[in-house]
Amino acid sequence: MSEAPRETPETGPAEERRSPAWWAIAKGMGTVFKQTFRADNTERYPKEIVEVPERSHIGRHLLNRHDDGLEKCIGCELCAYACPADAIWVVGEDNDPEAPVSPGERHAKDYQINYLRCIMCGLCVEACPTRALTLTNYYELAFTSREDAIWTKERLLEPPPPLGTDPIDREG
Ligand code: SF4
Ligand code: SF4
User: Fold this and answer.
1) How far apart are CA 137 and CA 161, in angstroms?
2) pTM score, two decimals?
């Protein structure tokens, strides 16, 4: 009975399918060469602001109002419960029938979002039953103190300015 040919690391079936080492090195060097000479696509932010789609939801929140000026937020706290980062603080209160803040029985007496915690996941927006809370395309959220990072209801009710108009230091 003749003995089956011995497989060595160089002749085994798996080894036959493997590319030689020099080919892997050549491919790697090719990638390095390609990346070294490719066109520069660095954004010159913040000196040049690239427009983002108007309805992109990548930036700060907005508390919306109805056309008559009443706040859409009814202080239900569902957004705060939905938030995985515990970034929202809501205190609800009954509306004064003579001077309601929102339609219905209740409104948000206090509303805060802590942008030190927020991860921009949008779950709060999904949870809101009145579409009072939305995300905007305003991503310029630089701050230098804890106080600045906590946005109050008054700030959140203000629509964001156009991108690039925030009075931050643009010299880098
Ligand atoms: S976007 Fe996400 S992390 Fe930020 S406040 Fe809403 S639920 Fe919380
Ligand atoms: S923003 Fe929406 S979910 Fe949050 S308290 Fe107001 S109504 Fe409720």
Assistant:
1) 10
2) 0.76
